[in-house]
Amino acid sequence: MALGELIWTGRAWPAAEIVGRTGDDFTFKTSGKGRPVDLVGPAAWWRNFSELNLDDPDAVIGFVRRHGDPFGQLSPTTQGDTAGWAYVLALLKLAASCWTRNRDGTGTALETALAKVAQGRAVPSLCTVWDNGYVIDALLASPLFVASVAFVPHVGEVGEGVTARRGVTMRIIPENLAAYMMTSAILHLENHVSMAPCEQCGDWFVERRRGTQFCSASCRAAHSTSKKEKK
Ligand SMILES: [Zn+2]
Predict the structure, then answer these.
(1) Neighbours of ion ligand 1 (CB under 5 A)
(2) Which domain holds residue 149?
(3) Where is 133: in which H helix or E strand?
(4) pLDDT tens digit string along 101-145?
(5) Which of 84, 57, 59 lies closest to 70, judged by CA?
(6) Tens digits of per-residue pLDDT, 190-199?
(7) Number of folded domains in the chain?
(8) Rounded distance from Cα 220 to ligand 1 centre (Å)
């Protein structure tokens, strides 16, 4: 039986605002309906979450506005808070440690050497920890993954080329954004994908073609428009 698509259906909250702080945790609210987010497959911006400074209200609310509330509490009638964020962040940081090159270009000695060889050209962040099963194990064993990710069998496309047929496959359905990010990290660890941070929006993305600077066609377009406006 094949493991099938990861499916995320959620909401980002562009109108979210911080309302206060209790101990270490920020509380936030929102108005409006939010922006629907429907994704098939993993997204590499789990690494953006792994980099968040949870003491910085702008970083916290920026993530909620752009990608959503990790535990899905937030709605126009219910406030959300950052309780539990540090736990998710720690696990995602562990996952991110399998990749070379941080956002600022620092990383392992090997990576620093590679960057010198590339002479300013962007060097992707590589998943060089080949035997990373122990990290995947830690993520799979976390209560969040166990409690919040459902595997739903369905009949879909399995096999490739001449073996392609309809057969039983599993859809992976996370219950909240935190579980979606964890599952994304697991799939990226498993596939050892290369990543880069988008030069327009700052989101990490999977580098499918060497030297790509943008996460999407819209970020590429926005970047060239802003460059023209500067001129
Ligand atoms: Zn982008």
Answers:
(1) 198, 200-201, 215, 219
(2) 2-230
(3) helix 133-141
(4) 788 776 666 666 666 666 656 678 888 888 999 999 999 999 989
(5) 84
(6) 999 999 999 9
(7) 1
(8) 7
